[in-house]
Design goal:
By secondary structure, this protein is an alpha/beta fold. Helices cover 45% and strands 12% of the residues.
């Protein structure tokens, strides 16, 4: 006899069996077996189920389809979780109409339950990309998992920032896990899977249909304790994610931007509506009392300092507060010239050092990193 898990996976392969419809069907009929045994009339009595979808349910060879989907996933190293599985993320399980099936490539750890989502515009500005990568670095440096959607622009920068810091990151896809979108992010997806997880509620082979992404966005917010919107136009998917986060009882934050930038119009509006104004990861951590222990950086210094190597700390201390030419920095540095140059590059990428014309480097501390202009969040 085919088990309930396999039948649930089979039902999830039906196109447009959205989470809300699937939830209503399971509530009405009690189980996947009950849904499959329902008559066409009973199925079409459910809101959102028309004759075509009802016929697809009725004609589904669920045991065969479910077992084949499980085999295909195993062959690709992908785990399939259902709501009844212990490994299913608890925070996501508790949202209204959670995905009944979740595909996972990589591993989820208990600490991922305290993740913070960083989302925003695909057509991000240089400012937005810089901010997103820095937030990814700082959140990961503080030990938090960075959650996003692997999209172009803000999402990709947030993932890359977390990976550069050696931290964990989770990407929720709007496609099957064997159809990475956008395709140029295949390497990034592999890196995320190696250091965190790729997740999707869509069966293998699913293409990037427009209706997938609102569902993807509600899973991003559902997995997270809070959502940070870096850049967003007045009408955008990122603002939809913020709306879903509020409905799910999550904290919503936004990064302020220039009033002349269309991609900051949405975030500035969120702030006017009461979203927390974010100038750095410290502001996110301070919103959660139980995360206060992660604020290990000295007052006025970026949270990213908590993740620095001993060599990076020594170089920052040697630099002091004044801008110095590279020759002078090498002279006061405890390491070799080559090692010092490499450390400066690493610190610049982490947003802790800025290079000025003429190979002059300035350490960014205090007000210049935590309370500066919007261009220096």
């Amino acid at each position: 006899m085919t088990n309930e898990r396999t039948l649930t996976i089979a039902l999830n392969t039906l196109p447009r069996l959205r989470a809300a419809i699937a939830g209503a069907a399971f509530e009405r009929f009690g189980s996947a077996a009950g849904v499959l045994a329902a008559s066409a009339a009973e199925l079409t009595a459910l809101r959102g189920v028309g004759p075509v979808l009802a016929a697809a349910v009725r004609s589904l060879d669920a045991p065969r389809v479910g077992e084949e989907e499980e085999r295909r996933a195993r062959d690709r190293g992908i785990a399939i979780l259902t709501l009844d599985d212990q490994e299913y993320p608890e925070r996501l399980r508790l949202i209204p109409d959670p995905p009944r099936v979740l595909y996972r490539l990589g591993e989820l750890l208990p600490q991922d339950g305290a993740g913070i989502a960083v989302v925003g515009a695909r057509a991000a500005t240089a400012y937005g990309r810089t901010v997103a990568e820095r937030l990814g670095r700082e959140l990961a440096g503080a030990g938090l998992t960075v959650v996003s959607g692997l999209a172009r622009g803000i999402d990709a920068c947030a993932h890359r920032g977390a990976l550069a810091e050696g931290g964990r990151t989770v990407a929720v896809l709007g496609t099957g896990l064997d159809r990475v979108y956008p395709p140029e992010h295949a390497r990034l997806a592999a890196e995320v899977a190696a250091r965190g997880a790729l997740l999707s509620e869509f069966p293998l082979g699913s293409e990037p249909e427009p209706w997938h992404f609102p569902l993807r966005n509600r899973a991003i917010s559902g997995l997270s304790r809070g959502v940070v919107v870096v850049e967003a136009a007045v009408r955008s998917g990122a603002l939809g994610t913020a709306d879903m986060a509020l409905e799910q009882g999550r904290e919503v934050f936004a990064v302020p931007g220039p009033i002349t930038s269309p991609t900051s119009a949405g975030t500035n509006r969120l702030i006017r509506q009461g979203a927390g104004l974010i100038e750095g990861a410290r502001d996110v951590l301070e919103a959660f009392p139980d995360l206060a222990a992660l604020l290990t950086a000295a007052p006025g210094e970026p949270v990213a300092l908590a993740g620095l190597s001993e060599e990076e700390r020594r170089l920052l201390a040697a630099m002091g507060a004044a801008a110095l030419p590279i020759d002078e920095i090498i002279r006061v540095s405890p390491g070799s010239a080559a090692a010092t140059a490499a450390l400066l590059t690493a610190l610049e990428l982490k947003g802790l050092v800025r290079q000025q014309p003429g190979k002059i480097f300035a350490r960014l501390t205090g007000d210049s990193t935590q309370r500066g202009t919007p261009g220096h969040v």
